[in-house]
Structures are given as C-alpha cells and as structure tokens.
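Methods: holo model generation. Sequences were used as deposited, without trimming of termini or removal of tags, and paired with ligand SMILES retrieved from the corresponding compound records. Each pair was processed once, and we did not select among multiple samples. The sequence and flavin-adenine dinucleotide SMILES for this entry were:
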Amino acid sequence: MKFNSWMRLRVFCPMKIMLKDAFPQMCERGDLSFEELLAPYTSFKIGGPADAFCIPRSIKELVDILSFCIVNHLPYFILGKGSNLLISDKGIRALVISMQGLVKITRDESYISAFAGVSLRDLCEFAQAEGLSGLEFASGIPGSVGGAVFMNAGAYGGEIRDLLYCSKYLEPTVEGLQGDYPVRHLKAEQHEFSYRHSSLQSRKLILLSSVFRLREDDPHAILARMQDLDAQRWDKQPMDLPSAGSVFKRPEGHFTGKLVDDCGLRGFSIGDAMVSNKHCGFIVNNGKATAAEVMQLIRHIQATVLERFGVRLETEIRMVGEM
Ligand SMILES: Cc1cc2nc3c(=O)[nH]c(=O)nc-3n(C[C@H](O)[C@H](O)[C@H](O)COP(=O)(O)OP(=O)(O)OC[C@H]3O[C@@H](n4cnc5c(N)ncnc54)[C@H](O)[C@@H]3O)c2cc1C
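and the model returned the structure below.
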C-alpha cells in the first residue's frame, strides 16, 4: 500500500506541476483541476478521481493541451457525456479532457454542423426547431456528438452512420498536431462505421465536429416522432436510475435482455449494482454501486449466459482505469 502511494506520487506530482505551470489561465478559470472525482461526469454515477481534469473552451486550447501531453508523454483520456463508461473506483491516472466546452451548432441548408461536446438532445432539439428530420432516433441517447460518432450510436432502426456527412478531427501524434491549423477532415466512408464501431476507435482520433445531412420536414411531425420514441424509451428502459445503457452488444441472432432474463437474473444484484427489473440488458446503480460490483455482476452475467445458452456476451460499455 505504502509502495503504491509512493509510486503514484512520483507519477502524479510532475503531471500536476507541469500542467499548472503550462496552463495557468485554465487553472484560474477553474477549467483545470486535480483529483477531480469522475462519478458526477458519468451517467452511472461511478468513478474515482482523475489525476488531472480539464475543460478546453476552444479548439486551440484543446490542441495546446493535447500537444503538451503528447510531447511530454503524459497519458490523457477524452471524455464525452460519460454515458457509455464504467470508470474504475480508483479513477484514472491521466489527464481527463472533457469535451463539454466545445458546443457550437450551426445550420447550412439541410446540413447541421455540431461540435463534439454538443449533447445529442440539444442537437436533436436544434434540428427539430429548424424543421430538419433524421435525428429523431438519437434524441433520447444521453451522449455527446463526439461519443455518438465514436460509438456509431443507434436506436429504433437509426444509426449515426445513416446521416453523417463528414467530420473534423485531430490526430494525436507529434506530426499530426504540427502546424498552425492541424484540424483534418474525414469523409463519411472514412469513418468505417459498423455496429457500435467507427475508425475513430482503432485510429485513436479525436473528433472535433461532425456535419449531418438531414431532410426538411414539418417541425410538429418531427417533435411528435421524438416524443413517441421518448415515451417508448421511458416505457422499456430504467431511465429513472443511473446506468450506462445496454451493457452488452447485441449478440447475432439473440436479444441480450431475453437471454439474461431466461437465466433468472432479472433483479439480481451484487451490492448496489443490479440487473434492471425493467430491462435485463441494463445494469443500474441503486445508490452506492462501485465499479468493482458492476464488474463482478458483468462477469456473473457473462458466465451464466455462456453456460446456459453457449452465447458469449461482449460488453458495449467501455471500462476505463484499473478494474
Ligand atoms: C439510459 C441510457 C440509454 C442509452 N441508449 C443508447 C442507445 O439507444 N443507443 C446507443 O447507441 N447508445 C445508448 N447509450 C449509450 C451512450 O449514450 C452512447 O454510447 C453515447 O454515444 C456515448 O456518448 P458519450 O458522449 O456519453 O461518450 P462517453 O461515454 O463519454 O465516451 C465513450 C467513448 O467515446 C470516446 N469519445 C467521446 N468523445 C470523443 C471525441 N470527441 N473524440 C474521440 N473519442 C471520444 C471516449 O473516449 C470513450 O471511449 C445509452 C446510455 C444510457 C445511460
């Protein structure tokens, strides 16, 4: 224990001092902090502290802090709305870069451009008010544009790939961040979308903004469709409890919720982590669930479903930090 704390101090102190020295204005503004608890930044309400945590307010600030990390070999992690994450109880030994400060949305004819930190809800409400249809499926997904493109989020028969026209991104390498304007462009097909996957994942790219191609429609009709999908979500999913959505990817030819239910695991809990009574594909936090409890529950579900049905459940949520 003593050894671990000492080791951590050695890694942690230089990062704190280096970042404080290099970005004093961010510190003064309160946009660069240390030992920030991450639980409030996730939909699961689980997660220990980040060694360092920042909220860049412009692309330039993001490029500066990212370049600093890369040149100085400081680990970093990009955080969207934290709605697809299970963060370790021990937190993250890195600079967590929250995209919540990058939130511009603009319209050009039937195209909408949105920065990575824009919430899908705000994007969908903007599109609806502008009379642009296509994003209704996404209005109840509690993520950001960055997280949704990264994950190729989808629901009710729609997916991000159906609408995405192009994106701007950063390549987090010394060469990639060189020059006055290191922002690069990705065409739709270069995202290599598939089920809950995009090339941003394998290429470790940082999404800055995306353009969506929509079609004109009556705002009232769009609103009605959004409300209908919202109602379906509230009817079928445990929206009133903290969770990270569907824990597992949909296995070919099966429904996860039914497999888990047929194993008798509806309502099964370890500590405060519980298989939702409303939707067995969700794990909910009943109050004080820890990441360790959620992990134990995930392993138990996977083992039970494998033994009973021979189906391997692969996690959709992403685990971050030491579990
Ligand atoms: C109640 C509930 C319902 C849900 N329903 C659905 C659903 O119907 N369909 C669905 O697909 N998902 C659903 N989800 C899961 C989640 O909302 C989506 O996966 C969402 O797209 C994640 O976005 P985020 O901003 O929260 O990403 P985060 O959880 O913050 O991050 C997810 C991953 O994306 C990376 N990332 C985030 N932003 C960027 C960026 N700008 N550049 C590069 N990488 C980035 C992170 O590093 C991380 O690896 C649900 C979740 C909840 C809690």
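Residues 133 and 215 are 5 Å apart (CA to CA).
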